[in-house]
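Notes from the 1:1 (GR / supervisor)

We went over the backlog. Supervisor wanted to see one worked example end to end before approving the batch request, so GR pasted a single chain during the call. The sequence is below; no edits were made to it. Supervisor asked that the structure be written out right there so they could see what the output format looks like.
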Amino acid sequence: MIATTPYKTNELVFRPFLPEILVKNALLLGIAAYFAFLSARSGHSWWLIGTALAAWLDLLVVCRYNTQMIVIRGFTLICRRGTLRVRENTFPLGRVDLEIDQSLLGRIMGYGTVRLLVGNNIIVLHQIAFVSELQAVIAKRQSEMILLLAERRSIVNGQTWGQTVSSVSH
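Structure output shown during the call:
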């Protein structure tokens, strides 16, 4: 049997900030364990409500990590979100405007809220890691796309890029 990776190697995947999720996970599991201890020690089962609530919140935190993702594949941006109802939007990078909001801790740790603006669509993803790299990759791919389009136009017009530059300089 051949092992396969879930994503192609030429894809860049951006997910929520993992250390923050791990800290929230540990805190919520600790709270659930404390309530379970109180229930066992006191003999009152109503402490188990706190255990169930903390465990449910922890499940939401873990699911949130697995439900938000930004994938850049070539000149395409794919945005996935949702747990039970997964929504996936695919946009050409040339039409994507990116807006990033970061708190002080987010700037220090490198995560933030990403708003993708495409036409009338606004997609918001919270606590995405490596937002500065995401912004740099999108800007680089958009400029590569512009250069490729300019090169194609000059070839269609019967000129190569070098001929275009030399004719402008004379």
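Supervisor's comment: Residues 11-159 form a domain with the PH-domain like fold (CATH 2.30.29).
Batch request approved.
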